[in-house]
Known about the structure:
This protein is of the alpha+beta class. It is 16% helix and 27% strand. The N terminus is likely disordered.
Amino acid sequence: MDSDDAPKPIKGVVIISLPPPDNPSLGKTITAFTLYSPPRTQSQTQTQSGQQQPHGDDNHQDPLPLQQHQPPANPQAQSSLSISRTSLGIPRKFLAFLGISMLALILYCSVSSQTQQELRRSDDDDRRPSSFLFPLYPKWGTQKRDLKLRLGKLVDVDKGDLIYPIEEGSGPRKIDNLVASKAQLDSAAILPVRGDVYPNGLYYTYMLVGSPPKRYFLDMDTGSDLTWIQCDAPCTSCAKGANALYKPRGGNVVPSEDYLCTEVQRNQDSGHCKSCKQCDYAIQYADQSSSSGVLARDELHLMMANGSWTSLNVVFGCAYDQQGLLLDTLAKTDGILGLSRAKVSLPSQLASKGIINNVVGHCLTPDAGGGYMFLGDDFVPHWGMAWAPMLNSPEIDYYCTEIVRMNYGSRILRLGVPDGQVVFDSGSSYTYFPQQAYSDLVASLNEVSGFGLTEDKSDPTLPICWQAEFPIRSVLDIKHFFKTLTLQFGRKWWVVSTKLQIPPEGYLIISNKGNVCLGILDGSKLLEGSTLILGDVSLRGQLVIYDNVNQKIGWAPSDCLRSQRSKPLPFF
């Protein structure tokens, strides 16, 4: 066979078009095609040879004209010959091209799936649940040492006298028409946030409750089940608070046969009281403070992103007896917003009514300022998030996942158990390590003494504080003396595992004395001493999302000044 008769090689072309930067939802476009020149038959070659020199001298060579298609004398024979040459002559190139095409297709599917999901979401906005986003504010004015720790647990209560008699026919109210038609409203609500870890030690948002609606500031707490507001029922022990006490009417008291009362009292040793005319509750927090009261049902007003309002009836605690350190944290707030996985929590109640998908998120600014929180999945980014599966147990209502490894820089911190647990608790000001991990961290931090930092035991702010030889204005002035904490989830292989990195500004604060203090405490007496609790100090600068629908916890670095899907937030 002459070399001119050899088949031309296959040329594969793949074109990937990226979306414009200002509209990534358009997705990528991938185009793939093949160029192949079939072999020429002998008759075609002779015909072309005869046409190449129609006149002139025999040695003159004119450029070849464009080949014109002529049907072969035996089409079946040519087809068979072409296939055999392709399969036998260039299989490696063909297989390489096929592999590249398959890889490009897999890449396209993996990248575009989220974009397609986002486009489908935009088409289904009229049929999907809403989302609500709330502001978080600082609790101004508390300058004392604050080691606030939440993780509330419902405990037994003494059944007292009925505070308010149940009116005839007063039971759970139906969701109003405004909520029933909320699918036609804007699908999200957004409000601004303020707050800090020190000296205030609290992030809170506000709720509008009752008719007419009244404002109440509530401490945002992912470690608490029940939302409660200080109330005049009358009040046995209440802090002054930011607003007037909530005053329930007889029709607001939840009867004992209500299914949420059963949920609240399910862990009580005395069992659920079916004969009681009210639903009593008592909450014991990890810092030994407590709150007691009765369940109430009233109208909650939520503002959506487009300025419209939706109203619905929710169950919350009418808290008339607070004890312990809780009274100090209530100096500028009116109660606690329970955001856990329990059925009685606010997000679970909204999800059970079809108002939202059961997703909670918050974003706390790295410095004093605040951030925002939201209910619903409209503000969940479609890319850039790191996710870890939640531990799914009927006995666990807080947000918990497994940790396989923890490092301070390159040094491993012992967890004390083969697979430890991490709780994300926005109700705790600081982070708590198991005893072994805490001891290893403190030992590693002894190296900072070589950088001119000496421990100042006279500073009462936190257990470990250092004084520098120069004035410290912010953590940025001394962060280069410290290393990043890395929490590793999922798999022990470093490359394929999910990691949460906490920089020095995620575990250090500057005290009123101008010292740098360690915002990580010994948690050996909390949750059996084997659980790591991530508090506000380490959650700052991260968008944290608790997806109860898909049972996973996610995070991504953020300045938390505004949601990616919202306009700039006015401060309340």
